[in-house]
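Students often ask what a 'structure token' actually looks like in practice. Rather than answer in the abstract, let us consider CAAX prenyl protease 1 N-terminal domain-containing protein, a protein of 175 residues. Its sequence is given first.
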Amino acid sequence: MYIFESYLDLRQHTALKLPTLPKSLEGVISQEKFEKSRAYSLDKSHFHFVHAFVTIVTDATILYFRVLPWFWKKSGGLVTLAGLNAENEILHTLAFLAGLMIWSQTTDLPFSLYSTFVIEARHGFNKKGGPYLAIYLWAFMFGLSLVMLTIYPILIAPLFNKFTPEFEYYGTLGL
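Now compare that with the structural description of the same chain:
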């Protein structure tokens, strides 16, 4: 699968190297926009080749050295360490999947950061919210807080709690 997809990606990469505007796009976009799009696509293509190669080598190494069965045993130990029953398959599986997700996110983070902050910024796509980002974030959080303050007592809290009308009781206050 990796070889076939790499072959297709290589064909696309070769097509991206053609410097002339295709006849079907003449009159639709300018040569300048075509060049910018082509340069961006070539950078993304180079990055994709490296990322795909590192991913396939990492996955092959994990399979060859049988890391997954080893981690399955270790995740049972993590469940026991947390004071839970390691014989519970659901807890064991959840610990295993949580570990795999943490591993996946950690190993993919450098590629994601490079893609966003180097490639995207190089081609002018990463503007990081502009000068008013803090105001936008504050307004969003303020609006979300107001919505949650309104919705929680009416819709969410009654799902988990039973509310009864409270009667007036002034006996302990001396009123």
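One point worth highlighting: The CA atoms of residues 55 and 108 lie 9 Å apart. Ask yourself how you might have guessed this from the sequence alone, and why that guess would often be unreliable.
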